[in-house]
Amino acid sequence: MTLLSLLDYGSVLIFALTGALVASRAQLDLVGFAFMASLTAVGGGTVRDVLLDRHPVFWVANPTYILIATSAAVLVFFTAHLVESRYNWLVWLDSFALSIAVAAGAGVALELGQPPMIVVLMGMITGCLGGLMRDVVNDELPLVLKQVQLYVSCAFAGASVAVLASFQDLPEIVVLAACAATCWGLRAGSLLFGWQLPVYKSRPPRN
Q1: Which of 38, 54, 76, 91 is the most exposed place for a label (fewest CB within 10 A)?
Q2: Is the pLDDT of residue 148 over 80?
Q3: Which ranges carry the Glycine transporter domain (predicted)?
């Protein structure tokens, strides 16, 4: 099993848990849990593979990914009531999944010899779109759009570090570990310490 496959497995599992936690907050049935978990788990990677023209898409080539997502959904369905502060679990699990998925997306693009801009974009897409789909389908304000927290910026920084590290001819595991660590460190700092970038503030029109 390759490192990129392990990263995909990890991001699928953890993103699936977040999707199932959202389903528990919405009080969906078991099929709804499985749908939300699977959508969140494979959404970003699916868009990545389609844009990079990877055929078949990773979870079509290996349906084990869907099995993992649905198993996570079943687990959460029967245990979510035991968890206090499910939202805190959601945002922290999401931070781990984001970091792993950004590394997976950037790694796939690097393996295919894509230029730096595409590597960064694929990392961001793989990391962010699954959670975005999850929150939009559940009619919640997406985590990626909450102005008081870094999110997409973390994905951008992590993928950019992967590009810079790849120029140093470092081993793949070092490149992708640096990517994931950067992304998660910034996201954790945002959650714990309120780190954020300046935001646009509109001004009243001049008379």
Answers
A1: 54
A2: no
A3: 6-80, 92-165
What is the H or E stretch that residue 52 is in?
Answer: none
Element (H, E) at 198: none
Spacing of C-alpha 117 from chain mean position: 19
pLDDT digits (tens, 9 = 90+) for 12-71: 999 999 999 999 999 999 999 999 999 999 999 999 999 999 999 999 999 999 999 999
Residue 122 to residue 99: CA distance in whole angstroms: 13
Q: Token pair of 151, please?
A: 């999110």
Q: What pTM does this model have?
A: 0.94
State the burial class of residue 103 (Cβ atoms within 10 Å of its Cβ: 0-12, 13-18, 19+): buried
CA 138 to chain centre: 17
Picking from 121, 108, 111, 100, the residue whose alpha carbon sits closest to that of residue 181 is: 100
CA 71 from centre of chain:
19
How far is 119 from 126, CA to CA, in rounded Å? 11
- Looking at residue 2, its amino acid is T
